Amino acid sequence: MSLGNLGAHWWVILIIVVLLFGAPKLPALARSMGQSMRIFKSEMRTKDDDGETKPAESSDTTTKP
């Protein structure tokens, strides 16, 4: 991935983030975002495992005369 392909607006956003948080705090910020995403994904998997998925459709067992 080449940084030259980024638009000018992304460079401005990157500079603003560096100015707001400072270079020393950026690794901690990235680590915290990664942990948050990991927790969110595990909670979504847990929600699916708790039985909150759609129930299976029942088959029609009636016979026609």
Automatic annotation (TrEMBL):
Residues 41-57 have a biased composition (Basic and acidic residues). It comes from Conyzicola lurida. The chain crosses the membrane at residues 6-23. Keywords: Cell membrane, Membrane, Protein transport, Translocation, Transmembrane, Transmembrane helix, Transport. GO terms for cellular component: TAT protein transport complex. It is a single-pass membrane protein. GO terms for molecular function: protein transmembrane transporter activity. This is Sec-independent protein translocase protein TatA. It comes from the Bacteria. It is found in: Cell membrane. Belongs to the TatA/E family. GO terms for biological process: protein transport by the Tat complex. HAMAP family: TatA_E. Part of the twin-arginine translocation (Tat) system that transports large folded proteins containing a characteristic twin-arginine motif in their signal peptide across membranes. TatA could form the protein-conducting channel of the Tat system.
